[in-house]
Amino acid sequence: MGNKIGREFLEVANLRPRVTKPVRHFSIAFAPEDGWVDDVVKEAIAFRVLDGMGYEDCQFIAIDHHRDDPGHEEIHDHDHIHIVTNAVTVLGKYVKDSFEKYKIQEILRVAERDFGLREVKSSWEIKKEKSEAVILDSNVARIVKDSLKDRPDLQTWLDRLTESDVDVRFNLSKSDNVMGVTFIEGSEVHKGSDIGVNWSVVEQQVTTDVSDLALMKTANLKSQDRPVRLNEIERAMFDRSVEMAVMKLGGCRQFKNSRTDMKLDGDTLTVVRMRPHRLMLQATRTHNGEWEPVGFPHIEKKDVEQLERFNGADLKTFEPEAEDLGETTRYHPDYLAELELRNDEQNEFELAY
């Protein structure tokens, strides 16, 4: 039976001979609290996954495993199903696997509600909670919150932070409205919203005056002496991304398409990746015309290449020097998680039949 199915898969896969890995595999586990899950529910969920991911015209096999399945080689505390599907449709079309790890989680969250199963959090929600739990309890978060006690005026608040070796950078719009606030401790940069102290929080606890704008601009000049620390590759990718974004804007305030959203508000440049939606970088223009990051950039090689394609520019190569690969190299936790996510996607979905 297995050989027959394999031959049938291969016959259809040969409709697209350039596809080297035509078989995809999905493993869907139910929560232990769901207990014994009816086969009808499992079948319905399998079809939802296949249809929602674009495999409705593809050959597939769905294998059902109960927790007490005697033929299963491992003991599980939950029911689960395996879906093996051809990435080439019976019409000869290829189903792309872009962002499948995100798509399948969205489908399963809806299925959990519809079938009364335990609702679990998606990977990006868990990642965000873990990141926030660490940052909200960080040293700089405690320093900033303590500095706001007794409703100080802006000068007193800035002086308190200076005593704790923390600088403040105000993100000002073209009309000098405060759009956000960033805190710099040593060479580490933290957006106020990331540590639970955004500008709206500060504004409610600091007494303000019409003369505060001059203090803010002075604080911004002072903070430029301590820019965010990036390694050589990170800095090169940041500089290139800013260069390409500014070139694409060409004096306009905003450019947006299905892939990227770029906005220039005064001296603040913001670039957002649309799929998946996340901030790529935010930068502020210094008094000498150079750009410095606000917070840690989330830039990947493919992001830089996309910006270069927008401008028809030659693609630059960002290769690390040998010493950058040692244990002292600092990578942002979100960047490492993104790398792990992409590796997981390859291992999970690109299995050869």
Describe this structure in words.
This protein is α+β, with helices and mostly antiparallel strands. It folds into three domains: 2-120, GMP Synthetase, Chain A, domain 3, CATH 3.30.300; 130-223, no CATH class; 232-319, no CATH class. It contains eleven helices and eleven strands. A five-stranded antiparallel β-sheet has the order 7-8-9-10-11, with helices on one face. A three-stranded antiparallel β-sheet has the order 1-3-2. The chain has a three-stranded antiparallel β-sheet with strand order 4-5-6. A hairpin with a 5-residue loop joins β4 and β5. α2 runs antiparallel to α3 (100-114) and α9 packs parallel to α10 (301-311). Mean pLDDT is 81; it is low at 320-353.
In helices, the fraction of residues equals 25-40%
What is the name of the CATH class of the largest domain? Alpha Beta
- Strand share of the residues? 15-25%
Give the strand line-up of the largest sheet.
7-8-9-10-11
Number of helices: 11
Number of domains: 3
Class by SSE composition: alpha+beta
Overall number of strands? 11
Rg, alpha carbons: 25 Å
> Under the CATH scheme, which architecture of the largest domain would be assigned?
2-Layer Sandwich
